[in-house]
Amino acid sequence: MSVTNMSSNIIDPTLLLIPYQLNIYLGLFIFITGNISWIGNIIVFSSRNFRGRACSIYLIAESYFNFLYFDYVLVIRMIQKGFRLPIINRYDVVCKIRQFLSQYTHQVAFTLITLATIDRLLSTHRSIGFYAKLDMYFEAIMSGVCPPTVLLILGCALLRNVRQVGHRRVMPTSTSSRAPAVNLSYIQQMDAQLTKMLLLQSFVAIPSFFPFGAQNLYSSITEDWYKSPLRIAWENVFIELIRLFSYLFYSTSFYVSFFTSRGFRKAVFQVLRIELFQKPTDPIKTHVQMISTNVTRKIEHKPA
Q: Which of 31, 121, 298, 300 is deepest in the core (most CB within 10 A)?
Protein backbone atom coordinates (compact mmCIF):
# COMPACT_ATOMS: atom_id res chain seq x y z
CA MET A 1 0.00 0.00 0.00
CA SER A 2 1.36 3.41 -0.95
CA VAL A 3 2.08 6.21 1.47
CA THR A 4 -0.67 8.33 -0.11
CA ASN A 5 -3.36 5.72 0.56
CA MET A 6 -2.16 5.24 4.12
CA SER A 7 -2.27 8.97 4.82
CA SER A 8 -5.78 9.26 3.36
CA ASN A 9 -7.06 6.54 5.68
CA ILE A 10 -5.68 8.26 8.80
CA ILE A 11 -8.29 10.68 10.21
CA ASP A 12 -7.51 13.29 12.80
CA PRO A 13 -9.56 12.64 15.98
CA THR A 14 -10.31 16.36 16.15
CA LEU A 15 -12.15 16.12 12.83
CA LEU A 16 -14.32 13.33 14.22
CA LEU A 17 -15.22 15.45 17.25
CA ILE A 18 -16.26 18.51 15.25
CA PRO A 19 -19.87 17.31 14.54
CA TYR A 20 -20.45 16.71 18.26
CA GLN A 21 -18.96 20.07 19.20
CA LEU A 22 -21.10 21.82 16.59
CA ASN A 23 -24.27 20.28 18.00
CA ILE A 24 -23.30 21.36 21.51
CA TYR A 25 -21.97 24.90 21.08
CA LEU A 26 -23.68 26.08 17.91
CA GLY A 27 -26.88 24.33 18.95
CA LEU A 28 -26.73 26.01 22.36
CA PHE A 29 -26.20 29.40 20.71
CA ILE A 30 -29.19 28.89 18.39
CA PHE A 31 -31.25 27.65 21.36
CA ILE A 32 -30.55 30.78 23.43
CA THR A 33 -31.05 33.26 20.59
CA GLY A 34 -34.17 31.43 19.40
CA ASN A 35 -35.81 31.56 22.82
CA ILE A 36 -35.02 35.25 23.14
CA SER A 37 -36.55 35.74 19.69
CA TRP A 38 -39.90 34.03 20.29
CA ILE A 39 -40.28 35.49 23.79
CA GLY A 40 -39.60 38.96 22.41
CA ASN A 41 -42.12 38.46 19.61
CA ILE A 42 -44.84 37.41 22.03
CA ILE A 43 -44.18 40.39 24.32
CA VAL A 44 -44.11 42.93 21.49
CA PHE A 45 -47.02 41.64 19.40
CA SER A 46 -49.17 41.19 22.52
CA SER A 47 -48.74 44.85 23.44
CA ARG A 48 -51.48 47.41 23.01
CA ASN A 49 -50.00 48.85 19.82
CA PHE A 50 -49.99 45.54 17.89
CA ARG A 51 -52.61 43.23 19.40
CA GLY A 52 -55.45 44.66 17.29
CA ARG A 53 -53.86 43.74 13.96
CA ALA A 54 -54.54 40.46 12.21
CA CYS A 55 -50.89 39.85 11.35
CA SER A 56 -49.99 40.05 15.06
CA ILE A 57 -52.19 37.01 15.74
CA TYR A 58 -50.34 35.03 13.08
CA LEU A 59 -46.95 36.11 14.43
CA ILE A 60 -47.86 35.28 18.04
CA ALA A 61 -49.04 31.81 17.00
CA GLU A 62 -45.87 31.39 14.95
CA SER A 63 -43.80 32.21 18.05
CA TYR A 64 -45.50 29.47 20.06
CA PHE A 65 -44.74 26.91 17.38
CA ASN A 66 -41.14 28.13 17.32
CA PHE A 67 -41.06 27.51 21.06
CA LEU A 68 -42.02 23.87 20.49
CA TYR A 69 -39.43 23.54 17.75
CA PHE A 70 -36.56 25.10 19.70
CA ASP A 71 -37.27 23.80 23.18
CA TYR A 72 -37.97 20.20 22.22
CA VAL A 73 -36.66 19.25 18.78
CA LEU A 74 -33.41 21.20 19.06
CA VAL A 75 -32.81 20.15 22.67
CA ILE A 76 -33.28 16.47 21.81
CA ARG A 77 -30.85 16.90 18.92
CA MET A 78 -28.25 18.47 21.20
CA ILE A 79 -28.60 15.61 23.69
CA GLN A 80 -28.53 12.89 21.02
CA LYS A 81 -25.98 14.28 18.57
CA GLY A 82 -23.92 16.49 20.86
CA PHE A 83 -23.67 14.76 24.23
CA ARG A 84 -24.13 11.31 22.61
CA LEU A 85 -26.87 10.19 24.94
CA PRO A 86 -29.20 7.76 23.06
CA ILE A 87 -32.39 9.31 24.37
CA ILE A 88 -34.25 8.76 21.08
CA ASN A 89 -33.26 5.09 20.88
CA ARG A 90 -34.04 4.47 24.53
CA TYR A 91 -37.46 6.13 24.83
CA ASP A 92 -40.05 5.55 22.12
CA VAL A 93 -42.31 8.34 23.39
CA VAL A 94 -39.53 10.90 23.02
CA CYS A 95 -38.80 9.64 19.51
CA LYS A 96 -42.44 9.79 18.40
CA ILE A 97 -43.04 13.26 19.84
CA ARG A 98 -39.86 14.58 18.25
CA GLN A 99 -40.78 13.05 14.90
CA PHE A 100 -44.22 14.66 14.99
CA LEU A 101 -42.98 18.07 16.09
CA SER A 102 -40.07 18.11 13.65
CA GLN A 103 -42.43 17.36 10.76
CA TYR A 104 -45.21 19.82 11.53
CA THR A 105 -44.11 22.66 13.82
CA HIS A 106 -41.77 24.38 11.37
CA GLN A 107 -44.28 23.91 8.53
CA VAL A 108 -47.06 25.45 10.59
CA ALA A 109 -44.74 28.29 11.64
CA PHE A 110 -43.82 28.95 8.02
CA THR A 111 -47.50 28.91 7.03
CA LEU A 112 -48.37 31.41 9.76
CA ILE A 113 -45.64 33.86 8.80
CA THR A 114 -46.74 33.49 5.16
CA LEU A 115 -50.30 34.38 6.16
CA ALA A 116 -49.02 37.38 8.10
CA THR A 117 -47.12 38.54 5.01
CA ILE A 118 -50.20 38.10 2.81
CA ASP A 119 -52.26 40.05 5.34
CA ARG A 120 -49.81 42.96 5.22
CA LEU A 121 -49.68 42.78 1.42
CA LEU A 122 -53.44 42.98 1.08
CA SER A 123 -53.82 45.68 3.71
CA THR A 124 -51.36 47.93 1.83
CA HIS A 125 -53.09 47.41 -1.53
CA ARG A 126 -54.03 50.56 -3.41
CA SER A 127 -57.66 49.55 -3.81
CA ILE A 128 -59.40 50.01 -0.47
CA GLY A 129 -62.14 47.47 -1.14
CA PHE A 130 -59.84 44.79 -2.55
CA TYR A 131 -59.15 43.22 0.84
CA ALA A 132 -62.84 43.16 1.73
CA LYS A 133 -63.77 41.53 -1.60
CA LEU A 134 -61.04 38.93 -1.30
CA ASP A 135 -62.11 38.11 2.25
CA MET A 136 -65.72 37.85 1.08
CA TYR A 137 -64.94 35.35 -1.68
CA PHE A 138 -62.50 33.44 0.51
CA GLU A 139 -65.09 32.98 3.25
CA ALA A 140 -67.73 31.87 0.75
CA ILE A 141 -65.40 29.29 -0.79
CA MET A 142 -64.06 27.96 2.51
CA SER A 143 -67.46 27.74 4.22
CA GLY A 144 -69.65 26.69 1.31
CA VAL A 145 -67.60 24.92 -1.35
CA CYS A 146 -64.59 23.28 0.31
CA PRO A 147 -66.33 21.12 3.00
CA PRO A 148 -68.65 19.15 0.68
CA THR A 149 -65.99 18.98 -2.04
CA VAL A 150 -63.41 17.54 0.35
CA LEU A 151 -66.01 15.11 1.68
CA LEU A 152 -66.84 13.87 -1.81
CA ILE A 153 -63.18 13.50 -2.81
CA LEU A 154 -62.26 11.57 0.33
CA GLY A 155 -65.37 9.43 0.04
CA CYS A 156 -64.61 8.50 -3.57
CA ALA A 157 -61.01 7.67 -2.64
CA LEU A 158 -62.20 5.48 0.22
CA LEU A 159 -64.65 3.64 -2.04
CA ARG A 160 -61.93 3.07 -4.62
CA ASN A 161 -59.59 1.58 -2.01
CA VAL A 162 -62.32 -0.70 -0.67
CA ARG A 163 -63.15 -1.93 -4.15
CA GLN A 164 -59.48 -2.53 -4.92
CA VAL A 165 -59.19 -4.65 -1.79
CA GLY A 166 -62.22 -6.62 -2.94
CA HIS A 167 -60.75 -7.23 -6.41
CA ARG A 168 -57.44 -8.39 -4.93
CA ARG A 169 -59.14 -11.31 -3.21
CA VAL A 170 -58.08 -14.45 -5.07
CA MET A 171 -60.54 -17.32 -4.84
CA PRO A 172 -58.56 -20.59 -4.44
CA THR A 173 -59.80 -23.86 -5.88
CA SER A 174 -59.04 -25.93 -2.79
CA THR A 175 -61.56 -27.04 -0.21
CA SER A 176 -60.57 -24.17 2.08
CA SER A 177 -62.11 -21.57 -0.23
CA ARG A 178 -64.99 -20.86 2.13
CA ALA A 179 -63.06 -18.41 4.32
CA PRO A 180 -61.94 -16.17 1.40
CA ALA A 181 -65.51 -16.24 0.10
CA VAL A 182 -66.72 -15.03 3.47
CA ASN A 183 -64.06 -12.30 3.46
CA LEU A 184 -65.05 -11.24 -0.06
CA SER A 185 -68.71 -11.13 0.95
CA TYR A 186 -67.78 -8.98 3.94
CA ILE A 187 -65.83 -6.58 1.70
CA GLN A 188 -68.81 -6.32 -0.65
CA GLN A 189 -71.15 -5.60 2.25
CA MET A 190 -68.80 -2.94 3.60
CA ASP A 191 -68.54 -1.44 0.10
CA ALA A 192 -72.32 -1.21 -0.14
CA GLN A 193 -72.62 0.30 3.34
CA LEU A 194 -69.92 2.89 2.57
CA THR A 195 -71.67 3.78 -0.66
CA LYS A 196 -74.95 4.39 1.14
CA MET A 197 -73.27 6.33 3.91
CA LEU A 198 -71.35 8.60 1.53
CA LEU A 199 -74.38 9.25 -0.65
CA LEU A 200 -76.42 10.18 2.39
CA GLN A 201 -73.60 12.31 3.83
CA SER A 202 -73.26 14.11 0.50
CA PHE A 203 -77.01 14.65 0.40
CA VAL A 204 -76.86 16.20 3.87
CA ALA A 205 -73.69 18.22 3.15
CA ILE A 206 -75.07 19.96 0.06
CA PRO A 207 -78.00 21.76 1.78
CA SER A 208 -75.80 22.42 4.82
CA PHE A 209 -72.80 24.09 3.18
CA PHE A 210 -73.61 25.38 -0.31
CA PRO A 211 -76.53 27.65 0.72
CA PHE A 212 -74.48 28.93 3.67
CA GLY A 213 -71.62 30.00 1.41
CA ALA A 214 -74.01 31.48 -1.16
CA GLN A 215 -75.81 33.42 1.55
CA ASN A 216 -72.54 34.89 2.86
CA LEU A 217 -71.56 35.90 -0.65
CA TYR A 218 -74.98 37.41 -1.40
CA SER A 219 -75.07 39.35 1.88
CA SER A 220 -71.62 40.79 1.25
CA ILE A 221 -72.38 41.82 -2.34
CA THR A 222 -75.78 43.38 -1.58
CA GLU A 223 -74.74 45.04 1.67
CA ASP A 224 -74.86 48.57 0.19
CA TRP A 225 -77.88 48.00 -2.05
CA TYR A 226 -81.22 49.62 -1.43
CA LYS A 227 -83.80 47.07 -0.28
CA SER A 228 -87.46 47.49 0.47
CA PRO A 229 -88.79 46.46 3.89
CA LEU A 230 -90.60 43.50 2.31
CA ARG A 231 -87.40 42.26 0.69
CA ILE A 232 -85.48 42.65 3.93
CA ALA A 233 -88.15 40.66 5.77
CA TRP A 234 -88.01 37.81 3.25
CA GLU A 235 -84.21 37.85 3.30
CA ASN A 236 -84.22 37.54 7.08
CA VAL A 237 -86.47 34.50 6.81
CA PHE A 238 -84.19 32.78 4.31
CA ILE A 239 -81.05 33.80 6.18
CA GLU A 240 -82.29 32.24 9.41
CA LEU A 241 -83.41 29.13 7.54
CA ILE A 242 -80.02 28.75 5.85
CA ARG A 243 -78.14 29.35 9.10
CA LEU A 244 -80.18 26.67 10.84
CA PHE A 245 -79.64 24.24 7.96
CA SER A 246 -75.87 24.75 8.36
CA TYR A 247 -76.12 22.78 11.62
CA LEU A 248 -77.81 19.89 9.86
CA PHE A 249 -74.60 18.18 8.77
CA TYR A 250 -73.21 18.06 12.31
CA SER A 251 -76.45 16.79 13.85
CA THR A 252 -77.10 13.84 11.53
CA SER A 253 -73.91 11.77 11.74
CA PHE A 254 -75.50 9.31 14.19
CA TYR A 255 -78.55 8.80 11.99
CA VAL A 256 -76.45 8.36 8.85
CA SER A 257 -74.42 5.62 10.54
CA PHE A 258 -77.57 4.05 11.96
CA PHE A 259 -79.38 3.77 8.63
CA THR A 260 -76.34 2.66 6.59
CA SER A 261 -74.43 0.29 8.88
CA ARG A 262 -75.92 -2.94 10.17
CA GLY A 263 -73.10 -3.35 12.70
CA PHE A 264 -73.78 0.13 14.07
CA ARG A 265 -77.49 -0.66 14.45
CA LYS A 266 -76.63 -3.90 16.21
CA ALA A 267 -74.38 -2.06 18.66
CA VAL A 268 -77.11 0.49 19.34
CA PHE A 269 -79.67 -2.20 20.06
CA GLN A 270 -77.22 -4.02 22.32
CA VAL A 271 -76.60 -0.84 24.28
CA LEU A 272 -80.34 -0.35 24.62
CA ARG A 273 -80.71 -3.99 25.74
CA ILE A 274 -82.89 -4.83 22.74
CA GLU A 275 -82.02 -8.32 21.58
CA LEU A 276 -83.29 -8.12 18.03
CA PHE A 277 -80.23 -9.76 16.54
CA GLN A 278 -79.19 -13.27 17.45
CA LYS A 279 -75.60 -14.33 17.18
CA PRO A 280 -75.18 -16.26 13.91
CA THR A 281 -73.84 -19.77 14.15
CA ASP A 282 -70.65 -20.66 12.38
CA PRO A 283 -71.35 -23.56 9.95
CA ILE A 284 -67.73 -24.74 10.00
CA LYS A 285 -67.65 -24.84 13.79
CA THR A 286 -71.01 -26.66 13.87
CA HIS A 287 -69.80 -29.27 11.36
CA VAL A 288 -66.63 -29.89 13.40
CA GLN A 289 -68.70 -30.32 16.57
CA MET A 290 -70.98 -32.85 14.82
CA ILE A 291 -67.97 -34.87 13.62
CA SER A 292 -66.41 -34.90 17.09
CA THR A 293 -69.74 -36.01 18.61
CA ASN A 294 -70.09 -38.89 16.14
CA VAL A 295 -66.52 -40.04 16.81
CA THR A 296 -67.16 -39.98 20.56
CA ARG A 297 -70.31 -42.04 20.15
CA LYS A 298 -68.48 -44.65 18.05
CA ILE A 299 -65.74 -44.96 20.67
CA GLU A 300 -68.30 -45.36 23.44
CA HIS A 301 -70.25 -48.07 21.54
CA LYS A 302 -67.13 -49.93 20.33
CA PRO A 303 -67.41 -53.63 21.32
CA ALA A 304 -64.93 -54.96 23.83
A: 31
